[in-house]
Amino acid sequence: MAEIYDQMNEKTKEKIQSVFLHLLKERHFNKISVQHIAQAAGVNRGTFYLHYLDKFDLLDRMEASLLEGLENHLHQLEPGPLLEEAEKGAVSFQAVEVFRYIRQHEEWFRVFLGKHNHSGFHRRLKDFFVRHFTDKMLANPDFFKAVTVPKDYLSAFATSAFLGLIEQWLANDLAESPADMADMYIRIIFFIRNLDGRQQ
Amino acid sequence: MAEIYDQMNEKTKEKIQSVFLHLLKERHFNKISVQHIAQAAGVNRGTFYLHYLDKFDLLDRMEASLLEGLENHLHQLEPGPLLEEAEKGAVSFQAVEVFRYIRQHEEWFRVFLGKHNHSGFHRRLKDFFVRHFTDKMLANPDFFKAVTVPKDYLSAFATSAFLGLIEQWLANDLAESPADMADMYIRIIFFIRNLDGRQQ
DNA sequence: ATTTCCACTCAACACAGTGTTGATTGGTAT
DNA sequence: ATACCAATCAACACTGTGTTGAGTGGAAAT
Fold it and tell me: Which CATH class is domain A1-52?
């Protein structure tokens, strides 16, 4: 039973991460030192370096685990009748799940998308959406066949807009339900299909 | 004629800013020290502090002057027949001018929106667009009267999407003309008006 | 011509933070 | 008992910070 060592290890890491998250609420990433983190976590500064390379590494891993969680959350639902579902339903469903996951981890998203982060996360999340959503959208041959706009611009447009909705949602303290948000996104985004002027 | 002092002053500032811009192309903001900047600018480190509080202040002022330039660029064109112009034409015109200004200052936008900036500029530019564009759009009573989506979400959506287009345009090395880009934006965004299903 | 002005230089300062080291502590497992 | 291992602690050289006070050199003012 060497698991107890792992448990100690995890407990310290969790303490560090939790403290770091709280610090990021109050001050900018650049103004937080490893000293602050260690002190606030009640941990020796040397112990921090036992677990992380530096504060960039800490932030990086937390962001990565949040995205990994989102990836898993979406993958859990992937195999099933959903793949065969109507385009609109499928996209909408994916969107709902994204909003749900964000609500589940509101604190983290709020901090990582907030003004105190040095904001690699915005870019990371956008890349995530570009990979995920537009791959699915564009893989469907009929989906955007009527669109007269280059696909990369369409991806950039749709995912940036989606991210914009998320950020506004957070700014509004998650006043709307995930279903409402997904519906809003779908109601907006699906009119892009009509770029040639034909009716929805 | 004490202007020569101002000229010296300006020349040093320009040298510092130019060097800083070049440094930001190569390394992340966090990894650039005042020492680097001063050395690369061929200027004493003390001289840097004669002009700027710190490197954050330097970045801040450069970003601000870029946005101020954009503000002026748009204001120059404001008074005229354009105000009375058709909604679509006016928005399109504004958009063209934004893309034009960005092309004029490609280097700065590329750096400040790039991965080496600590990325306050993305947020700043988005806020700029929210103030500018959606104020105009939403001030027009008929413009979005049919839209069933809350105005703040619509603003967030439209401006984030616009910024997404800009970033993709930069990623594509400004392959399209400003007019093409504005047209693309308009072609996409104007279908939002049809959210209730009526024809464009 | 000399004095004033002023951007800039230079060296030095105390200070905060970094990442690493080697020795040590105190529970846990064998 | 003893080997194990996360965590502690003090000390290290190092980089960068922001500020100081004295000094330089060329243009401006009188």
Answer: mainly alpha
